[in-house]
Amino acid sequence: MDPIQDFNPDPEFTPPPILVVDDEEIVLAALRETLRRTPYEVVTEADPLAAVELLKQQEFSVIITDQSMPGMSGLELLARARQLQPFATRILITAVLSLDTVIDAINKGEIYRFIVKPWLREEFLATVKNAVQRYELICQNAHLQAATQQMNQQLVELNRSLEQQIKLVAQQNEQLARVNAALERNLMRSLELCVHTMQTFYPSLGSQARRVAALCRGMAQVAQLSPHDRRVLESSALLHDIGLVGVPRHIIRRWQDDPHSLNPAEKALIEQHPILGQELAAFTSDLDQVGQIIRAHHERFDGAGYPDQLVGENIPWLARLLAVAVAYASSPLPPTDATERIKQEAGSAFDPEAVRVFLQALQTVELPRKEREVTLAELRPGMVLARGVYTANGLLLIPEGQRLNATFIEKLLNHHRIQPITQSLVVYC
Fold this sequence. Notes:
Keywords: Coiled coil, Phosphoprotein. This protein has about 425 residues and is of the alpha/beta class. The chain has helices at about 25-35, 50-55, 75-85, 100-105, 120-160, 170-200, 205-220, 225-240, 250-255, 265-270, 275-280, 290-295, 315-330, 335-345, 350-360, 405-420, and strands at about 20, 40-45, 60-65, 90-95, 115, 370-375, 390, 395-400, 425-429. It has 3 domains: about 20-130, Response regulator (Rossmann fold); about 200-370, Hypothetical protein af1432 (Orthogonal Bundle); about 370-429, Molybdopterin biosynthesis moea protein, domain 2. Helices cover about 55% and strands about 10% of the residues. Helix 4 (about 100-105) links the parallel strand 4 (about 90-95) and strand 5. Helix 6 (about 170-200) packs across helix 7 (about 205-220).
């Protein structure tokens, strides 16, 4: 499954309105007009102090605000919004993107995305759509966590009653098994929703998460990990890049294609994602260890990694396994060359024992095909679509798995000229 493309909102769920705050009436009017054709209700406010009062009185799914306003900055408003409505998705519009502002806001959890003026209408609407879906996902996770806590409480009560109900031991054990299975299913649903969030935000993140998870399952078998450690490693593999949801898409793409092209500010932003990933993985107490593994998966065996420059065995064993799997799954090199590169870096970038486990697992694991997002202009004959291409009305233009030729590409370009194709185009590598 694909976890915000496979994320199916509750058809009966109606999201609260979107709040837009900007002291310039002309900008408010532009945002109002942009959002007019969406299915969401929009509330606008020019005064940030008045907007705070609105937040006390009415629930909102998304809060969009300008940074520079008299009386209160956008970040100050979003900080208040986080206190008043923690589930609402917070988006900051700014003309000047300061690294200190970015890092501070992301670390404090004040914002979901930055939008830099001037913005592209399609990207803006896509951001708003993802923001609303994120709000619903968080609401559903909150309900899920409450249900899990309730079931945990039921487990405690059942355990207390065991001594008093000896004759019912068999029946109660069966009931406990059903409850534990339900808890496991709930956790897996939460993980799948998180992967779906990544895939909707940036398609290749979701497909890479599944490749890394498949490889980690094989490595767990080779390393004879305990059931608990296998679960932690697989969960860490699925969520290892979730911290990238706070990074602009164009920076992620440059990091994947040519990491040396990043400037210091962009590199610093990328190197924050394991820390943010650890924070995001804390949505349930079951994932405390997962957060630690995510934080350490970009550490190097020689201490030259990030974010904490851990060395050798100071890096958690599961993080050392995950680091090798991520390096292979994300490598732009052909499989044979990627494998050879990992062998060469054993003892420097990677733990030699983790490399040994990886090489043995690679012989038996069947990995999902690698995917990448492309633009219409980048389509070439011979590429194979990883997902079908649809019109804005939901009609299928070209199915998933179709190998492209000049005719298919021309068909897409002609349709785009008449009715722009706004969905992500994903092909197999």
